[in-house]
Amino acid sequence: MSAENIPDKNTAQSKLTPAEKVRDTALLSMEIRKLLHFYHQVGIKAYPKTEAFKLPAFKRKKSKQEVFAKPSLSRPLVQKNSPQEKNVVKRADLLEMYEAIERCDTCSLHASKQPGIPEELAASVKLMIVGDFCLSQEEENTPVVFGQQEDEMVAKMIGALGLCQQDVYVTNCIKCRCAKENTLTFDNSDCHDFLAREILAVQPLVICAMGDLSAKVLLGKNAPLVRLRGKFHHYVHYEQYPVEVMPTFHPRFLLAHGEMKRATWGDLLQIQKKYLHPGRR
Fold first, then answer.
1. Alpha-carbon distance 117 to 115, whole Å?
2. What average pLDDT does range 103-122 have in this prediction?
3. What is the pTM assigned to this prediction?
């Protein structure tokens, strides 16, 4: 192929008018400034080359039959896997779990369920992030996991780790939206069971527990988060599914206490060093 026939990668950009180029450059500069400001706050000193990260869009698969009976949870929720099955997403099991959530009506929160399985889910998940609950009162199908501002913060942190959208799975301990934080309890055993089934189906390489409730549920410990964070712990069902958990602060807490962002970033860097890029220093 002659040099004249080689497509110019800048052809599309050359079609922009001068005014459009100025506009796009200004918008890009503004976004870069925002991102650099966030990096400065959490103490990031290196910038990996990666595409921008966005939290995944969600969809919930409705059951064809409108059955609203309580889900049957009699079968084992956590089962041992062969080495060949490790870190391979079991999509059918995940869909089955979300259909069970659809039918669940064991508590007063069931009327406001969160969106379910991501529309794009890779064959394997490197990092699973587990929060506590969502306080957002947006429409039911709005893809908000922790909250609008909280999700934006998580997306920036994950992007800084050098991960792409399909590498990460984000969920909550409580599967329905909550109106008030001070009225919440996690006594409902169904939510415990759903989370155990979810982890088994997703098969993550490592888990990050964000917030006190998430750390308590995933570790089975009542110790304060400040004593748990900063080091890896075995998942409470480690014998059935051997995965480590790194507890850290929830984005909701970080929005109110910005001085703790640096500590949180340190926790994430430990995940990066041990599991995401083990050869990187």
1. 7
2. 70
3. 0.70
Distance CA 177, CA 140 (A): 8
CA 94, 98, 99, 105 torsion: positive or negative?
A: positive
Structure token pair of residue 117 = 């399985």
Alpha-carbon gap, residue 114 to 211, rounded angstroms: 19
In the numeric block, which tokens belong to residue 238? 């480690």
> What is the tens place of the pLDDT at every residue in 120-142?
677 889 999 999 988 765 555 56
Contact 165, 50 (CB under 8 A): no
Q: Strands 233-234, 244-248: parallel, antiparallel or unpaired by DSSP?
A: antiparallel
Contact indicator for 126, 276 with CB cutoff of 8 Å? yes
Mean pLDDT on 258-280: 90
pLDDT at 42 over 60: no
Q: Where are the chain's structural domains?
A: 88-281
Question: Which runs of consecutive H residues, i.e. helices, occur in the chain?
Answer: 11-14, 18-42, 91-103, 148-160, 189-202, 212-219, 225-228, 251-256, 261-271
Torsion-angle region of residue 174: left (phi > 0), alpha (psi -120 to 50) or beta? beta
User: What secondary structure letter does DSSP report for 110?
Assistant: G
Which residue from 265, 217, 266, 280 is spatially nearest to 245, judged by alpha carbons? Answer: 217
Q: How is domain 88-281 classified at the CATH fold level? A: Uracil-DNA Glycosylase, subunit E (3.40.470)
| pLDDT band of 77, cuts 50, 70, 90 | very low
pLDDT at 91: 86
Does residue 74 surpass a pLDDT of 50?
A: no
CA geometry: angle 190, 129, 270, nearest 5 deg: 140
DSSP strand pairing (206-210 vs 244-248): parallel
pLDDT tens per residue, range 178-214: 765 544 555 656 788 889 999 999 999 999 999 999 9
